[in-house]
Write a structure and sequence with these properties.
about 210 residues; Nucleotidyltransferase, domain 5; five-stranded mixed sheet; globular
Length: about 210
């Protein structure tokens, strides 16, 4: 799972259940059993901003400061936050040059969000800083948010902070761990089980 801490303003928009989960139509991927503490893509914080009269969700990965803006959200979009988060994260990583191994690792660990209220002052300041960078990008281009491609905007935002380099490094490390785990599992399953009822010929020759 992926923990997402949100502000009270954003929480009011999200149709979560008592466990902090959004409605979902399908089970999560093959790494769904990964504990939150072991998931390198867990631990985000987010809030809702009104930008150019549009609801925009801004979220930041706590470990790397990698940021994602989900702009111009409507009411149904909040119930599909899992899908929007996962697709935008993958699209942004790919546009930033992530290789196949990094993208494959991201797909493994981009799991369902578990949402809870509570954003620290430091995290609020980081969110406001990223919001200011988004507004500066729009100002420099004299651009309307409605006309912007979200992936391109997220690419430019993360290039400003260079946070994507840290997230790609995290994915590299996690990819190595996944590969080692798969190799150990494969080696274990390839070893034939020992039959305790079979007596070696040398043992058979020993005097009884």
């Amino acid at each position: 799972m992926i923990r997402l801490q949100v502000t009270k303003k954003l929480l009011a928009k999200l149709p979560i259940n008592a466990q902090g989960r959004l409605p979902t139509r399908s089970s999560s991927n093959s790494a769904a059993s990964t504990l939150e503490a072991l998931n390198p893509l867990s631990d985000w914080y987010a809030t809702l901003y009104l930008m150019q009269h549009r609801n925009c969700l801004l979220m930041v990965h706590a470990k790397t400061r990698f940021a994602l803006l989900l702009p111009c959200l409507t009411k149904p979009d909040f119930g599909k936050l899992n899908e929007h988060f996962q697709s935008q994260c993958l699209a942004t990583l790919e546009a930033l040059g992530a290789n196949d191994a990094q993208l494959g690792c991201a797909r493994q660990f981009l799991q369902s969000l578990v949402i809870e209220e509570g954003v620290s002052r430091a995290h609020s300041e980081a969110l406001n800083l990223h919001k200011g960078m988004v507004e500066r990008l729009l100002w420099d281009d004299n651009a309307s948010l409605m006309d912007q491609d979200a992936t391109r905007l997220n690419v430019e935002l993360n290039k400003l902070t260079e946070a994507h380099s840290d997230l790609l490094a995290v994915l590299d490390s996690a990819s190595v761990t996944l590969e080692r785990s798969a190799n150990r599992t494969g080696a274990s399953s390839a070893q034939p089980a020992k039959d305790n009822n079979v007596v070696a010929f040398a043992d058979f020759q020993k005097p009884r």
